[in-house]
Amino acid sequence: MSTNGGRLAGKVALITGAASGFGRAAAVRFTAEGAVVGCADVDLDGAEETATLITEMGGRAVPIQADVASGADCERMADTTAGEFGRLDVLFANAGVAGVGSAVSTSEADWQRVLDINLKGVWLSAKYALPYMLEQGAGSIVNTASVGGLVGVGEILPYSAAKGGVIAMTKQMAFDFSPRGIRVNAICPGTVLTPLVTATYEERAAGEVDPGAAADEALQRMTQKYPIGRVGTTDDVANMALFLASDEAQWITGSALTVDGGYTAL
Ligand code: NAD
């Protein structure tokens, strides 16, 4: 497959959470549109698998092991990507974990872990990518938030606090850096059956008599809440990331765009 032309031709992208789900789908989609990709994830084997997929497409990728909750790792993932490919045009700050619990049942340790990865990790990813973009006078940052940061979803307190924070932080970063050529937007996806979501349902159903059946039933109920009649796919989200990363979105900044089959329209 030729990757010379396309909507991201000549661009260098860094994707976090690139070992799985939206991150892997975006890595493949960005490659098909001409980008070269730094594939960062705490799961090095998975990041390497994504990089192999890209190589098999005729693209170029560098796998990077990085925990986005660590400033040193975030600095290294930006430096490695820019060092390998000479610049940094796009950051898809997408890595995240599930965070189940109500205001009563959430432990302080869970709160801290989820906020460190899902909120602080998005900030740290930008903190070390931005200097490259500022030097170039151009860049696009796409943060993965969630419908859980916009509306009540139920018993995902630390997760929703982090995702609401990502939306607020996206707007602040857009305010600060758009005058210097860097657009910053957030995507708010609805349910897509990635390992993160399966883990959420399994954790919630753990106390039930038949946890497998309870998780399946809860997922069925969830699907019925989507006006479009299905949950999403990883490509539904990767397509939005691609659009926001590309110059087609050159007048869009500070936005939190839902990709949710109408879930938040109800
Ligand atoms: P996923 O589990 O398939 O992928 C998440 C990836 O993030 C994994 O590869 C994991 O190893 C990585 N990761 C976890 N902690 C990390 C860390 N500390 N440092 C670096 N990488 C880390 O899940 P996904 O659904 O593709 O999730 C991607 C993003 O989308 C997350 O931010 C998630 O909160 C968000 N999201 C998912 C859904 C959904 O329904 N799947 C909906 C809304 C938002």
From TrEMBL:
UniProt keywords, alphabetically: Oxidoreductase
EC number: 1.1.1.-
GO MF, any single term: oxidoreductase activity
Domain of life per record: Bacteria
Pfam family, one: adh_short_C2
Family indicated by similarity: Belongs to the short-chain dehydrogenases/reductases (SDR) family.
Protein name: SDR family NAD(P)-dependent oxidoreductase
Organism: Prauserella salsuginis
